[in-house]
Amino acid sequence: MVNEQLLLLNNILPILFVKIEKGVGSFLTFTSKDERETLWIYLSDWVIYKNKKKILDCENENNIVFLNVLYQIKSKPLVEIKNNTVSKTISFVFIGGYELHVYSNTKVYNIEDDLFIFFIKNKTISYSISQGFYTECRNK
Length: 140
Prior knowledge:
The protein is mainly beta. It contains 2 helices and 11 strands, in the order αβββββαββββββ. The protein has one domain (4-137). The strands form 2 sheets. It has a 6-stranded antiparallel β-sheet. The chain has a 5-stranded antiparallel β-sheet with strand order 5-4-8-7-6.
């Protein structure tokens, strides 16, 4: 069965994020040029791959490596979002062989915590282990 929210997200792609910021802990913020689409990765662990080879994870504390990888992704459009229901991993696929895999770490976070929030127009689409994908309306 195709998830309605995942289908909605994939229908607005590709998105080019012009600003990617590292926050506290594993927090990442991706912002589009017109700021209409913003992606927050938080309350989750993640790994970034290039051509299936791990190049960065949320545990890496080397800011130079961190910023270099984020700079590389910044110039690559997000083209697909995939849900692996077996591993409960969400994959954000970018042009150039880059993939951001986001997953829950239940030793640190609760299963109710959102792994990400995607802000689009007047709504948010989020994902948590307990709720799966869900949408909330927001005021502009």
